Amino acid sequence: MKKLEILLGVTGSIAAYKALELVRLFKEQGWNVTVVMTRAAKHLAPVETFRTLSGRTVALDLFPKERVVSGSVEHIDLATRPDLVVVAPATANIIGKLAAGIADDLLSTVLLALPQERVSAGRVLLAPAMNRNMWQNPIVQENVRRLAALGYRFIGPDTGELACGEFGTGRMSSPETILYHCRAALARLPDLKGIPVLVTTGRTEEPIDPVRVITNRSSGIMGIEIARAFAAAGAIPKLIAGAVSVPLPGNALRVQTTEEMAKAVLKALPEVKILVMCAAVADYQPSTTAKKKYHQDQITLRLKSTTDILAQAAAQPNRPLLVGFSQDDSLARAKAKLRSKHLDLIVANPVKTASAHKVRATLVFASGRIRRLPEISKRDFALELVKTVAGIYQQKGDK
Predict the structure, then answer these.
(1) Is residue 182 flagged as an active site residue?
(2) Catalytic annotation, pick one of 73, 139, 150, 164
(3) 237-291 pLDDT per residue, tens
(4) Domain extent for 367
């Protein structure tokens, strides 16, 4: 099979050095990488290192003495050859040039020469990196909105400590995150642009006393990957998370108890088209909670059922498409949960996958159809789930 061709644009941000790791990750995937650097980028990251890692000459000038690719017009050849185009880091300057149609160097010229079907297919990705004030500037935000409406996909930026010493939004997403979005773009995810999606993840905790809790086993990995996959498909995911064992995205809403999660879900539900209840919600809670932690040889707990979030969601007028999870080794229980809670789809996965990085899931549809998936990573499963959910959503129509 022909190797995939990736064009990586590197601009003059202090985050340019992170693009070196991105080249390494791309090569690990077996992809061919051609790097195009701006004049400013050359002062921040070594050209020779990019050449060594990519195994190819780095494209630098609009009118080079030596061509990087053979052809009559190099910038056109650079634009038409790649299967995927990534600009990381993408400065406010290159975003503004692209939005305004300015072509005054090699990278901006190549970007404007890209076939429009590449853009509309979501295969041109921009990973912004800049100071938080620059990112929040209304002009930059308008440029981002304009490009996003045309089909350009944005990755980040993240919130954290910036190179200038400030804290805020503007940090370039990690190379691993960018790689994930690249794989998602190449996986041909359906276009869910602008569709609001709500995903729950992690585990809820019901306090016995100020220290001890009743909970379920859940790392939160699955829900986080599902939210990322929806974002890669162009949707607008909101993540509500209980306790997790892995880092959460900065915009996730944190809750602790089942009641808190229920209130957050029901509050967000009117604006949501798809709800994915991936969280491991505690089924029971103590009837009373002790105000102090007591040490005794024996303790008796009286438990009561917690709020059934999925049942409440299903009862709402104009309910969204509902996807549930059944962490159980019994497929019969998953089917029963699908019927009793009037779900559109349920994911049945074995108990042992609670903290694992791989899953062997079975999809059970409202129609009764069953689809068994092989053991795959939770990241790859999330991409597959988004494709499946998008298919159901398109069949049901936007109601």
Answers:
(1) no
(2) 164
(3) 999 999 998 888 777 899 999 999 999 999 999 999 999 999 999 988 888 888 8
(4) 196-396
Whether 191 maps to a domain, the answer reads: no
Q: Please tell me whether residue 262 adopts helix, strand or coil conformation.
A: helix
Q: Are residues 302 and 388 in the same domain?
A: yes
* Conformation bin of residue 179: beta by default, left when phi > 0, alpha when psi is -120 to 50: alpha
Q: What is the mean pLDDT of residues 389-393?
A: 93
Give the pLDDT confidence of 94-123 residue by residue, as tens digits: 999 999 999 999 999 999 999 988 888 888
Give the DSSP letter string of 280-310: B--SEEESS--SS----S-----EEE---HH
What secondary structure letter does DSSP report for 164?
Answer: T
Whether 376 and 358 have beta carbons less than 8 Å apart is answered as: yes
SS3 153: strand
| DSSP single-letter state for residue 249 | P
- Tell whether 28 and 151 lie within a shared domain: yes
Q: How does DSSP classify residue 220?
A: S
Q: At what angle are helices 18-28 and 175-186 packed, to 10 degrees?
A: 40
* Torsion sign (Cα): 86, 92, 94, 97: positive
253 and 287 in a single domain? The answer is yes
- How far is residue 211 CA from its own chain's centroid? 33
